[in-house]
Amino acid sequence: MKLTLYVWRQSGPNATGKMERYDATDISPDMSFLEMLDVVNEGLVEGGQMPIAFDHDCREGICGSCGMMINGIAHGPAKGTATCQLHMRSFEDGASVYIEPWRSRAFPVIKDLVVNRSALDRIIAAGGFISAATGGAQDANSLPVPKHDSDDAMDAAACIGCGACVAACPNGSASLFTSAKISHLGVLPQGQPERKRRATRMVLQMDAEGFGHCTLFGECQEACPKEISIDNIARMNRDFAVATISAREEKALGGVG
Amino acid sequence: MELRSKVPSGPIEKKWNKHRFEMKLVNPANKRKHTVIMVGSGLAGGAAAATLSELGYQVKCFCFQDSPRRAHSIAAQGGINAAKNYQNDGDSVYRLFYDTVKGGDYRSREANVYRLAEVSVNIIDQCVAQGVPFAREYGGLLANRSFGGAQVSRTFYARGQTGQQLLLGAYQALEKEIAKGGVTMYPRTEMLDLVIVNGRARGIVVRDMVTGKIETHLADAVILGTGGYSNVFYLSTNAKGSNTTAIWRAYKRGAAFANPCYTQIHPTCIPVSGEHQSKLTLMSESLRNDGRVWVPKRKEDCPKPPNTIPEADRDYYLERKYPSFGNLSPRDIASRGAKEVCDEGRGVGPGGRGVYLDFADAIKRVGKEKIAERYGNLFEMYERITDENPYEVPMRIYPAPHYTMGGLWVDYNLMSTIPGLHVAGEANFSDHGANRLGASALMQGLADGYFIVPMTIGDYIGANKLEAVGADHPEVLATEAAVRSRVERLLSIKGTRTVASFHRELGRTMWEYCGMARSAEGLKKALEIIPKLREEFWRDVRIPGTGVELNQSLEHAGRVADFFELAELMCIDALHREESCGGHFRVEHQTPDGEALRDDEHFAYVAAWQFAGDNTAPILNKEPLVFENVALSQRSYK
Predict the structure, then answer these.
(1) pLDDT of residue B601
(2) What is the DSSP code string of chain A?
(3) Chain B window 527-566: which residues touch A at a Cβ cutoff of 8 Å?
């Protein structure tokens, strides 16, 4: 196969970027999209040029490192598939392919296709956990969890934190990401004590990071490589509303003695 | 070098408890005055960083990924073992201990393995408390599945993403501590050397992968949880970034490297489809519950479509050779079986390096729906990669490097031969002997991270008076200067060949001569090829760009440079170990019917290699393995 690539090149966070044209030749339909870029990069290095920088690691669709806009679609044309699992047989021989980084105010470009997604970590740090310090846990089977709750939690927990939902959203909202964690922990009995606090703090952090709001376009679930449902956003909105209405002042006195 | 394992005295089931009481403690008010460096944020690293911070230490945690949530532990599929005996099928801590020692082909340290089995039950409790969504039965209790090398069901799982869910549990605990200020996280930061002051590990030199800034971080103790080194083979199931640099730099600073030749080749991976291949994808071991492995009996049938080959012309070689375990033979045995038939010219698919894993019988027996329910996601992944529908045509699979049992030598406290340098998870050598059983890597990572190293770090800090070290200490400056000059040297070569081309060539050499079957002749040949290739690398590699920017070629080059040196040590170790055990198969040492032949009289020891200088042969130190509880016997799966 032969393809014409138009790739966003930007040498650093403050540099001006532009689309550059490259020819990808001798491409096998069995290659993954990233392997195609590897071939192009080998050629660039042999020609003394800087290779195209992109994040990638496991190449099995689970680590969430990779991700780029391919012809305007987050992770490209295959549904439920991360960029590393996309194969060249999804493209026509001779096609033009436009490759850009995730576009979002909250994801500044570091170089070429590499963006800074640390805002997502800060959303988790704001409350995306159950406070259970190592060592004090009771026997695992002393807390039965209904199977459907456990399955719902797992559906939400499958999120790989790649940021495609943000990149696909016209508002640049991280609602799918944030709501997936709120749902995962919020439907489990272990997650109840911190449920309201979690929803409030994570949503406020999402706002503070400069992500937009959700207006239910639904683009996020279309782009999600793990097909996380926007039902989670409804759950997040409800938890946030309930938490806001029933908010109680946090007391510092508890446990001091 | 003296290898003191520091295994506590007393009966095996009381050792850890006794040791926990005897270890020194650090006063809660004093803990915050101590800094601990954690390199790596996977199951071992993430869990240890979070737990140490909960205890009150100041923790600095480093990872090369853009977020700690992306460490390669995330890719583990199958499950995690624990001796809960929830199934009432006769499991116990002792049985898990026994199975692990036997599965490791009697090349691990009994006391460490027993402790691993002991804390396995706490891991499950801890993970459930954190909200890990393990699979459950309709009654709400936890479900289990069976895995290779065991006759009980003790594997806990979260669909096919157990590693992901366990890692997210540890990651969330880590983020909780980051928010509280106990952990400072350094993502996109790579450790390039270890700082040793007065014989103790006191810090690391790192490179900020975004700005290229090289700087030193100092601490009272350093822990490495940096994973395995399967990428020495170039093609493996590891993530592209997985590398040996942290443990290799520590080795060159004096930490002994134990059993480097013990590597696990996983039998069921999707075969290589061409020269462009960048990594190999694992297909879960669980598929062998229903799939039948075969190749054509005659070479000339290999190019034919599999469905046209009649039953009588197929060789179900695992069922033929191992009638009692059949397709569920352990990993090392199944892998060698595939290699053997392909070497005979009976392999299928591109290059003749593949065997069929056929579900036709299972589909006939239980129906397509049932098979889809069991393996649907794996079948989809297979189809996405190969463009073949495994419901209609048999899967093609081939073995691939997957896990490394070898690693830095550690004592019972998980401390290396450098005081203050601790090693956790796959990066150490401790628990799996010469072959790891399925679902045991996650168990070990979390055991080390949550329950063992946070305790033993306290003992180290409590028992030793550590003087303050300044950033201007001569050793600090010298180590930092060495790192800078190495980076500059790499950038100044300006040769003609890409880093990847060298890595591929090294990988091919290692796979050929130090892979599934090894011979003295082949290993000697590898030991001639590798130094030449390494010399060519240092003369002719081309790294574009500079050191003060995000430069992925430079990162890769530093890692490949270390893989070259490690590859040589692996071959030296494999050559010296004149026996076959677990994943280490020497063709000269096999039973008349082709099985691994151990030599307990001469090789029941840990080979701990000590660095003696560049271009100087490493020094072999031996830790004898004493088996007081498990009787040594020949593994048989016939």
Answers:
(1) 96
(2) --EEEEEEE-SSTTSPPEEEEEEE-S--TTSBHHHHHHHHHHHHHHTTPPPPP---S-SSS-S-----EETTEET-SSTT--GGG-BGGGS-TT-EEEEE----TTS-EEETTEE--HHHHHHHHTT-S----TT-PPPGGGS---HHHHHHHHHHHT-----HHHHH-TT-B-HHHHHHHHHHHHTSGGGSTTHHHHHHHHHHHHHHTT-B------HHHHH-TT---THHHHHHHHHHHHHHHT--PPPS-TT--
(3) 542, 544-545, 549-550, 552-553
- Residues in chain A, how many? 257
Least confident of A243-247, B49-53, B223-227: A243-247
- What local confidence, expressed as pLDDT, does residue B324 receive? 80
Contacts of A180 (CB under 8 A, 6+ apart): A156, A157, A159, A228, A232
**Contact call for B128 and A190, based on CB within 8 A:** yes
Mutation for A interface: B63, B123, B157, B384, most A CBs within 10 A? B384
Asked whether residue B280 carries a pLDDT value surpassing 60, the answer given is yes
In this prediction, residue A255 carries a pLDDT of 58
Whether the CB of B424 is below 8 Å from some CB of chain A: the reply is: no
What's the CA gap between B309 and A185, in Å, rounded?
Answer: 52
Kindly list the residues from chain B whose CB atom is less than 8 angstroms away from the CB atom of residue A174.
none
pLDDT of residue A254: 60
- Dihedrals phi, psi of A115, to nearest 5 degrees: -120, 165
What is the side-by-side order of every strand in the sheet holding B58-62? B183-186, B58-62, B35-39, B221-224, B421-423
Active-site positions of B read 331
Among A25, A46, A58, most B C-beta atoms within 10 A, so best to mutate, is A58
Q: Are B147 and B443 in contact (CB under 8 A)?
A: no
| Interface size, chain A vs chain B, as Cβ–Cβ contacts under 8 Å | 216
Helix (H, G, I), strand (E, B) or coil at B384: helix
What's the CA gap between A101 and A93, in Å, rounded? 24
Is there a contact between B500 and A42 if contact means CB atoms under 8 Å apart?
A: yes
Closest CB to A60: pick one of B75, B130, B542.
Answer: B75
Q: How far apart are CA A218 and CA A229, in angstroms?
A: 9
Residue type, A176: L
Structure tokens, B634: 């020949």
Read off the pLDDT of each residue in B249-259 and give the average, rounded to a whole number.
98
Task: Quote the CA–CA distance of B486 and B102 in Å, as a whole number.
Answer: 43
Instruction: Give the residue from chain B lying closest to A113, CA to CA.
Output: B550
Query: Is the CB of residue B211 less than 8 Å away from at least one CB of chain A?
Result: no
Q: What are phi and psi of B325, to 5 degrees?
A: -105, -25
Give the closest residue to B38 by CA, choosing from B172, B206, B238.
B206
Residue-level pLDDT at B595: 84
Inter-chain residue contact B172 with A161, CB threshold 8 Å: no
Q: Please provide residue B620's backbone torsions phi and psi, each rounded to the nearest 5 degrees.
A: -90, 125
Residue of A nearest to B278 (CA): A35
| Minimum CA–CA partner of A142 in chain B | B141
pLDDT digits (tens, 9 = 90+) for A125-164: 999 999 999 998 999 999 999 999 999 999 999 999 999 9
Cα dihedral sign, B64-B66-B67-B70: negative
Q: What is the phi/psi pair of residue B621, to 5°? A: -115, 145
CB B379 within 8 A of CB B372: yes
Give the chain A residue nearest B494 (alpha carbons): A48
> What is residue B587's three-state secondary structure?
coil
Residue A172 C-alpha, separation from nearest chain B C-alpha, in angstroms: 20
Q: Would you state the pLDDT for residue A253? A: 65
| Mean pLDDT, chain A, integer | 96
Task: State which H helix or E strand residue B619 sits in.
Answer: strand B619-624
